[in-house]
Design brief:
Distance between the termini of chain A: 47 Å
Number of domains of chain B: 2
Structural class of chain A: mainly alpha
Helix content of chain B: 40-55%
Chains: A mainly alpha (291), B alpha/beta (417), C mainly alpha (324)
Mean pLDDT of chain A: 86
Low-confidence stretches of chain B: 1-9, 16-34
CATH architecture of chain A: Orthogonal Bundle
Largest sheet of chain A: 2 strands, antiparallel
Largest sheet of chain B: 6 strands, mixed
Strand order of the largest sheet of chain A: 1-2
Helix content of chain A: over 70%
Order of helices and strands of chain A: HHHHEEHHHHHHH
Structural class of chain B: alpha/beta
CATH class of the largest domain in chain B: Alpha Beta
Order of helices and strands of chain B: HEHEEHEHEHEHEHEHEHEHEHHHEEEE
Shape of chain B: globular
Mean pLDDT of chain B: 82
Oligomer: heterotrimer
Radius of gyration of chain B: 25 Å
CATH topology of the largest domain in chain B: Rossmann fold
Number of strands of chain B: 15
Strand order of the largest sheet of chain B: 2-3-1-4-5-6
Radius of gyration of chain A: 19 Å
CATH architecture of the largest domain in chain B: 3-Layer(aba) Sandwich
Distance between the termini of chain B: 80 Å
Chain lengths: 291, 417, 324
């Protein structure tokens, strides 16, 4: 009984982090209909920035979040407005390949600047753990989970209640109608991408604290985002959360009961299975056109 | 107005071009005349990008350190009465075997006779196949998998014993601990090196009389080891042996601390040797053991650098990156080549190959001797065991090279003050 | 071209014969680059049968390279006592069969998806195959698989594999040509243009898609078998590569999506650029490849052939316009 509870708890903690790492990707896919293959590299950019800020300013890495998010917001806006938008206009496959090309370029730049070594961010509480009843929790992972949940709720609130959120949702649901109502669609697309990049960066901080990272890891996080989006649904933080939690639990259950080297197999099997059974994900497309 | 601007610019460009041309023509004359020094070309690939890049960079730096010392400080080496400078021709294989094989072939075409190895058995093997076919020697410090040394290659030499033999020293050290441990468990990652190394752990430890409780296989890039550690807590082995690359070792160690998984001794093949690893773990890195193939305190003497301390000094004048044993191993590859050529009194590949097979040289790294299959001699080139004591990596085994005694059993994580 | 339908295969065969003489004049490095070019173009055309003609761009075709190579290697290892000339044919048959079975099994559910969902699903399939291959010890993915040496004595291996790739690539191209000019090919093109309308008009879309999928998979697998032999030792990372997955798409994009020769041109160009031009630039190749992709997408989304076509169209229209 204890083992299952511990495994589930570990899975939930892991899942919250996966969810944060994927929500940006989900938003872009839902609003811009673009598959952003440079998502993973934006996550890593967040991690590296957090490393720099926390070591030079001597603050806890989680506190660097506002700065990192602002930087990535700016980067994301410019990136989308001036580069990706051109590709979106031209061909559907084009945006995918463009983002892949940019990912390669950024990866090379990171290798020049940071070297290919594995880095990690070690906060002061890196080794503490606490227990809730018979279940042990790793303090770092739990604080990251809490950060994820806070950010995801903020994003959900932004999308639901703020004017910006309404405009984004409107553009996603009916682009032409939004344009006719006077929405500057390009600007909205760029803002959405910027928000998404900011969240990718925040996820990067969280990931950097938990795992060692290096420029070569970027593909893993893009793939992760894919799986979470397919599982949970496109375009909503709730979908990302569901998808992430599901992925986390499946991973830990597989590791515990089938074998520690099998979580990836089940992850991809789940991806394929869900694409066949319910391609829009468990919560569906949050921006499905209204009737 | 525009017309004259264009003319001016054209004139400036023309002047510049003439100046450049003159410089180019004059340059050879400016170079000082010196004695006929021949060039010795050594080629090969290293992964500078991709999955193996972190160690690839260390290996690369080691090659560069040795070559620049030989060329700049020693002014070249003498082989069979002629002076030679080394021309190091390395390229980035991006951790991709197809790329590595194509570019190695190009080097063979261009007449390169001697090769250094890449890092990672899956890249070394195909490239070794090509150099073997072309009958050119390869001395490498990057591939330890048994597969490389059991194919009957005559021209491939490795600075490590093959993976299944790398744990003889570790098992011997375990046997020397007081009170004698009785049980062990192994964790490894699912890749060519770690799997065969884990097999080596099993063979050596079983032969030394230890009882194996469990073996755990992790994916090649693990993100979470909580389930494995849960099992370890439940079965309480005396010794826990981890065979994996440094970043995975760090992940395991951190999660062990966070989940309070205690064992009497934690051995991590790759990890504690690196300063960045010890820094990341802080005081929790005390008592951790690792295998190390070199350390700047080893007592070997060397006709190029003198000893390891001087090597490290010279390395620090060229690189700010913290030194690791792969750097020394790589430099030793270069030295081994030179020593073999000097022994063979020739730069003919086949003669050098014979000299390498008969090698018994002392370098600052270790004594170099190869088995008939080409891997490093188990005893001479097998690893030493290091343990982190008071923030430093001390050599605790074998006794001849030891700088401290092994501390056992280790205290619990939360008691490491 | 329409009057002489046999002109195209004749040209292909003549080109193949000319290329076969390559190893006699080229230094071994260029023979190896040639190997890679021929291998890549064969893969590109095989991919394009499904991706270019039918419009179902798969992002996971490396799965078939891996399955083909490992199936062949495992069987050849088991039957290594057979005389050497029989090993490669055995490997080809087994590899091809394995890919046929896999693709037939997967085709029915996967081909119900379209567009990006299909692409991602295939990526998922590729990773599932890669992970299973890696984690099931009997498949030897992580430990690595050795291939027997199949080069006939006296023949330089680089030359031998060059000719093998050339022969395989030519066959793949001829098959693609035959498909394209057949009713089946016309059906595939109609699927790309508008699948639902095609179905309404009576084109057996489901059957055609499945056939194209299996053909594409088997041809890819056969090339994978040869690739495994040419490397000599493979691990999961050598064959189930994500960069191969993406390259296959890029070849068609670079050369002209949906055309017959576009993928070949794209493959030749990209291999040339990455192996010859960028080989000298140690630190830059990732950056340069990325930049190339970005420029390609922005400047020439139709690929080389698309660019040529639009150029010709523009020329024709300006020529027809009344003189100013």
């Amino acid at each position: 009984m204890n083992l299952i509870a511990q495994t589930l708890a570990d899975g939930l903690v892991l899942g919250g982090i996966y969810a944060l790492a994927a929500v940006g990707f989900s938003l872009i896919f839902g609003v811009l209909h673009v598959i952003n293959l440079s998502h993973g590299i934006l996550v890593l950019l967040g991690a590296y920035l957090a490393l720099i800020f926390s070591t030079t300013l001597h603050i806890d890495p989680l506190l660097t979040m506002p700065m990192v998010m602002v930087v990535l917001f700016a980067v994301g806006y410019v990136y989308q407005r001036f580069l990706i938008q051109q590709a979106v206009d031209r061909s559907p496959l084009g945006s995918m390949l463009l983002t892949f090309g940019v990912a390669l370029m950024l990866q090379n730049i990171m290798i020049w600047v940071f070297s290919p070594d594995m880095r990690n961010i070690t906060p002061t509480y890196a080794f503490t753990s606490f227990k809730l009843g018979p279940i042990a929790f790793d303090a770092v992972r739990v604080s990251c989970l809490l950060a994820s949940l806070v950010l995801l709720s903020c994003l959900a609130a932004l999308l639901k209640f703020s004017p910006l959120g309404r405009v984004i949702r409107a553009t996603a649901q009916q682009t032409l109608a939004a344009r006719l109502c006077g929405v500057n669609v390009r600007h909205v697309y760029a803002l959405t991408f910027a928000v998404s990049a900011a969240f990718a960066g925040a996820a990067g901080i969280v990931i950097g604290i938990i795992l060692p990272f290096s420029p070569a890891d970027e593909g893993t996080w893009t793939l992760n985002a894919f799986v979470v989006v397919v599982l949970g649904g496109v375009g909503s933080p709730a979908g990302a959360l569901i998808g992430g939690l599901l992925l986390g639990i499946v991973s830990t259950l597989t590791a515990q009961y089938i074998g520690p080297s099998f979580p990836n197999v089940t992850m991809f099997l789940l991806l394929v299975l869900l694409l066949l059974v319910r391609p829009q994900g468990l919560l569906g497309n949050a921006f499905a056109p209204s009737r | 107005m525009v017309h004259s601007k264009k003319a001016t610019r054209r004139r400036v460009m023309a002047n510049f071009g003439v100046a450049l041309g003159a410089a180019a023509l004059g340059a050879p004359a400016i170079r000082p005349a010196h004695a006929q020094v021949k060039t010795l070309v050594i080629g090969g690939s290293v992964p500078l990008t991709g999955a193996a890049a972190e160690t690839g960079l260390n290996v690369n730096n080691g090659y560069i350190t040795a070559v620049s010392y030989i060329n700049d400080v020693l002014g070249g080496v003498e082989i069979a009465g002629e002076k030679y400078k080394i021309d190091l021709k390395l390229f980035d294989d991006a951790s991709d075997p197809a790329r590595a094989t194509t570019l190695i072939q190009r080097q063979i075409d261009e007449g390169t006779n001697f090769f250094l190895g890449s890092f990672g058995s899956n890249i070394v093997l195909p490239t070794a196949a090509i150099t073997e076919r072309a009958k050119k020697p390869m001395v490498q410090t990057g591939g330890g998998s048994d597969a490389i040394f059991t194919r009957g290659y005559k021209f491939v030499f490795g600075m490590f014993p093959r993976a299944t033999r790398q744990f003889a020293a570790t098992a011997a050290m375990f046997k020397s601990l007081q009170p004698l441990p009785s049980t062990y468990s192994v964790i490894w990652t699912n890749d060519a090196f770690s799997k065969t190394a884990a097999e080596g752990v099993r063979l050596s430890c079983d032969a030394a009389g230890f009882k194996r409780i469990d073996g755990y296989e992790l994916p090649a890039k693990p993100t979470d080891v909580s389930s494995v550690l849960g099992s370890v807590r439940a079965t309480t082995p005396d010794l826990l042996v981890c065979v994996m690359h440094d970043q995975n070792s760090l992940l395991v160690a951190r999660q062990m601390v966070a989940t309070n998984t205690n064992v009497k001794l934690l051995f991590q093949g790759l990890g504690p040797q690196l300063a960045s690893f010890r820094e990341a773990l802080g005081k929790h890195s005390e008592y951790l053991c690792c295998s190390t193939y070199w350390d700047e305190n080893v007592p070997f003497k060397d006709k190029f650098f003198g000893d390891s301390k001087k090597f490290v000094e010279y390395y620090k004048t060229k690189f700010t990156r913290p030194i690791a044993y792969h750097v020394a191993g790589a430099a030793a590859c270069i030295e081994t080549y030179i020593l073999a050529m000097q022994a063979a009194k020739s730069t003919n590949p086949e003669a050098v190959r014979d000299a390498l097979a008969a090698a018994n040289y002392e370098t600052f790294y270790s004594r170099i001797k190869f088995t008939p299959e080409g891997d490093g001699d188990e005893l001479l080139m097998g690893g030493m065991i290091g343990q982190v004591q008071k923030g430093k990596l001390e050599i605790v085994f074998p006794a001849a090279a030891a700088s401290a005694k092994p501390l056992y059993p280790a205290p619990d994580w939360d008691k490491k003050a | 071209m329409k009057q002489y339908p046999w002109a195209v295969p004749a040209i292909i065969v003549v080109c193949a014969i000319v290329l076969a003489a390559g190893p006699l004049v080229l230094p071994p490095f260029y023979v190896r680059v040639g190997q890679l070019m021929l291998y890549s173009s064969g893969l590109a055309v095989a991919w394009a049968i499904l991706g270019g003609f039918a419009g179902y761009g798969s992002f996971g075709h490396a799965a078939f390279i891996g399955v083909g190579a490992f199936a062949a290697g495992l069987v050849e290892e088991r039957f290594s006592s057979l005389p050497t000339p029989l090993l490669l044919p055995l490997g080809l048959i087994v590899g091809g069969l394995a890919c046929a079975v896999l693709s037939a099994a997967v085709a029915y559910p996967i081909l119900r998806l379209r567009g990006t969902f299909f692409a991602i699903a295939m990526l998922g399939v590729c990773h599932v195959c890669a992970e299973l291959n890696n984690n099931l010890d009997v498949l030897q993915g992580s430990l690595g698989l050795n291939f027997p040496a199949i080069t006939p004595t006296g023949w330089d291996p680089a030359n031998f594999f060059y000719q093998l790739y050339l022969a395989a690539g030519t066959i793949v191209l001829l098959i693609a040509w035959q498909i394209r000019r057949s009713r089946f090919g016309a059906g595939l093109l109609s699927i790309r243009e508008d699948e639902d309308t095609a179905r309404m008009l009576g084109v057996p879309t489901e059957r055609y898609k499945r056939i194209a999928f299996v053909v594409s998979a088997v041809l890819t697998g056969l090339l994978g078998v040869i690739y495994g032999h040419s490397l000599g030792y493979i691990t999961t990372d050598s064959v189930y590569r994500d960069d191969t997955n993406l390259s296959l798409v890029v070849y068609s994009l670079l050369g002209g999506m949906g055309t017959l020769f576009g993928p070949v041109i794209g493959a030749f160009m990209l291999v040339f650029i990455t192996q010859v031009v960028l080989a000298r630039l140690l630190d830059f190749h990732l950056f340069a490849t990325g930049l190339l992709l970005v420029v390609l997408v922005l400047a020439a989304p139709g690929g080389v052939l698309g660019f040529v076509r639009s150029y010709r169209l523009r020329r024709r229209s300006t020529a027809a316009a009344p003189a100013e």
